[in-house]
Amino acid sequence: MIVRNLDKGFVEASKKFPYKTRAGGATVTVFVPYDCKNNCPFCVNKEEYADCSGFSLEAICRSIDRMNALTPYCDFVFTGGEPLANLKSLQQMLDHVPETHKVYINTTLPVSKDQSEEEILDFMNRNAHKITCVNISRHMQHFVQESNDSLLAKLPVKFRINCVLYKNYPEDQLIPFMERFRKVHAPSIQFRFDYTETTPDNLYDQEGDKILHSLKKVAEYTGLDGCRMRCGFHFRYKDLELVYHKTLPYSTIFEKADDGVTYAILYDILIKQTGRIDSDWDGTVMDVAKYAHVVFEPYDLKWIEKVPQKEAEAEEDAVLFEGAACSAS
Prior knowledge:
alpha/beta
């Protein structure tokens, strides 16, 4: 039985539980030690950048080295803040990640008088062998400073558009939004539910999910995948792959196994701006020595429902989108 209790006493008691995670290791999300220039209303990270004292690039790099030594095949996600706001510092962090890892970057793709398109493209070209995917934030409501869409078509790495459908999003703009990114040959868009509002009760809810109904009006529903922590409703719009992603606002599930042992099952590990390593988004510090003895299990992300696609050219086996690896976290 899955147990999750946010009571402080329970969380303290849970520290005695052994760790378990998926084969390869939990996704490691690195918070870069510098901020962005945006103020997205759904961002829960912004307050962490109000006081940058104690932030340390060197400490972050040491923590990256520690996690690589423990799980040399885990995924790394760089987020913030804005990873591409300081290309020199991001390069130093990437240099500590061997090529055995998949690397994802969450970004707005910032271009300014201090950083040109050419500098962004040069960085991407130098690191194209290492970057698995760039997750680019673009929203139907104007929350972020955006570079020109033409830059997207020049990227030498795989990219995906991330769009949070926040509160009273303009439903009538869904098709124009998708058409906008078809013009630059974006391979996929991930629409995201405000994860601060996600609960175990509404994670898989379909009947009362407004966003799901909005997407079914304009795109072809192709299936559902998911696990304990997150799920993805898959769609196709013309040649665009779409996923409506929902994830819980924490990353640890407590579960009693068949042998009677209760495990703390970790999906995300966080390297904070100070280099501290956390096992959840609520500030729980990870016991790194204990994680060295983590129990591995097969990743529980699986197809729950698959709907045959109408288009003859559509592949039978669509790619599973790993929500934590390509998330914000």
